[in-house]
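Objective 1.3, modelling of assemblies. Example input:
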Amino acid sequence: MNIGNLPFIVAALLVVLGLYTFLFKRNLIKLVIGITLIETGVNLFLVTLGYRTGGISPIYTFAPEAQQMVLPTPQALTLTSIVIGLATTALLLSFAVFVHRHYGTLDVRKVKELKG
Amino acid sequence: MTALTLHAPILLVALPLLGAFATPLVGKLGKGARNTLIGLIVLAVAGLAAMLAIDVFGSGGIPTVYELGGGTFTFPLSGGQVPVRILFEVDGMSAFMGLITALIALTGAFFSFSYWKERSGGNLYFSLFLMLIAGVFGMVLTGDMFNFFVFLEITSIAAASMVGFRVWLKQSQEAGFKVMAMYTLSGLFVLLAIGLLYGQYGHLNIAVLARSIQGSLTDMVALGLLLTGLAMKAGAVPMHMWAPDAYGESPAPMSAVLVVNSQASLYGLFRILFTLFGASISTGTVGWILIVLALLTIFVGVTMALIQSDLKRLVAFGAVSQIGYMLLGVGVGMAVIATRPEYGLVAMQGGIFHMINDAACVGLLFFASGVVIRAAGTRDLNQMGGLGHRMKWTSIFFAIGAVALAGVPPFNGFASKFLIYEAAFKLNPFLAVLAVLSSIMLLAVFVKAFQAAFLGPRSNTSAHVSDPSLGMMLPMAALVLVVIVFGLFPGFFVDHIVTPAAKALWLGRDAYINAVLGG
Amino acid sequence: MNNNSMSVIVRTVTRFMYGLIILFGFYVIMHGHLTPGGGFQGGAVVASAFALLLVAFGSAGLKGQLNLHWLQSIEEFGALAFLGLAFLGIGTAFFYNLFANSGGFLFGASVPTGSNAGVLTAGGLVPLMNWAVGLKVMTGIAAVVIVMLVGSHKEETE
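Predicted structure (tokens):
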């Protein structure tokens, strides 16, 4: 089945949604969600790059003979990016926890000791 | 070439990384064992960086290529082969950045031994410190776009953890969140651009991409994303809001390493503009974009420093403004690269020389301000005063760092800024005037800060202070030595370490590609 | 029974499932060089079992069973093992796969080209690195989840 450009459109949509969330939402947790959305969009874009119509996964264990395989490199890139995303999200959420502990709020308009 | 020099590029990354993971385990044996391990690692790293630099500078402009997992290829390749492995590629510019990183790693680690002695969480602190160093080395030595992104993220995570390290401080947590959010965003921009490039050309190696890049619309989108992402990570002005918070709220020795981290992002930007896109962009336009970014950064950085009353934040804004001078020098070099007049190389030399000078001066200022803030028990300049009576050496060190950063002869900041002024004047006199004026304003800022902190009558806060222990004095003295020696003999250093780096960027695009792919 | 554990259905299913989840995680790590998955994925699966236990029984229910210091030590060990394995091949180059196709006992079997049923003893250093990464990831994620849960729980009771 040919899925054409659909994944690219979804990826672009996710990135745009994420950027919107990041720029216009006021809650720290929602900012983290925005960043995660952008990340998901970029990951989807990467993994789609390597897709070949009708391709099988690039593993020889019990592979059908003479089949086209999808590209393995973008999958490796996506996996690396997911691992990094796990670390960044965990760190961002930990900071959110500590900000809440110190300021008693997650509203970016009230977390403003550093400016100027 | 000895085996050690051959493996130096990977050892520079692997040793600090090994140290980062070993530190918490060795730390269980006690602080002495831990500090010995870290001291040995940073000494080894400094030695390796120096060896690598001597080797690369002595090779006449031919980059060193190192293949991870080796044994498959011999470089340069021939007959249309392409490398599928991750490569490290070290040219003059990479080796030069390695020297800067090694300098700050060495002084920062030894300064931290004393600075963090009485604090808890030392194992974690040094673990993150070494991880950040490993990431910065990876960024400047790698020859692979995706690998660059991975190291960029390693530095992001380690740097943001360091900014928010002191969890008991309110502002530090706010800064940590802000820094991590901006770093992640910049990293994702870079990753998206890498995806766009990979989708078109099917390669991630910088040399292969540089040869095959066409300059299509997609390439320009990728360039825009890379420019935005890396300028954001370097703290250039429209995207600078995280930088003063990060430098200001992290522990003092880490601020110096964070500045080097920003410089590594600048290096990435330069590498991408000169090597990757060098043949397919309108260099005049991009050069002027860099110049505009530079002027904004210089101007906003200095003006914001002017109104600070918090010592650390004042130095932080000073550090932000200095990123602008590097951008200015390299931007002028980029703008005229097509015609290649004499002063283009001078501008590149100035911008690149200013990197190591800035690392030394800003490092010194952050160390000194850390000492001052700890001694005075406050960061507010209005509550300090008279500290110079009992902290003679610290005040002298701070003064030297400040005037050097402001570009007063005979210190090193003057040497590099003079090259930038000279070249910028030839391109457009207005640029030089603005750069000189900003330097004078920066001097005024530091005079004000120095007067507020160190001069004045002895007060209650300054009665019990004293110069710090030798463990903190020696790293500061080492940086002062760098500042003075670079300032007294600029010709020697420009000829031997700056010019090879500048030429590698300005003229070395073909050499960089040919070292991997053959002529 | 403390009050932040979940209902009896969740707890019963968890008791039944968590062993299987851990087993599946180990399977994914072990066959990382043959099938989809590997150290990170398997480690994440194992860590999800720890997370399930935490959610079902509450942070107090696990006290003393998962020691944070031990988790961190194992994590450091995994990272060091990975780097050590990478250093093994430094005679040729960093990350050089010393054991691949050596015929030796440790994953030294050679792999046939093309479609095959998978050779468990092939891969050289790759399966060992998968185990190192797997150890690091399972303990690392488990530590993160525990720290976050305990941290936010403390906040509620303060």
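Chain A has a mean pLDDT of 86.
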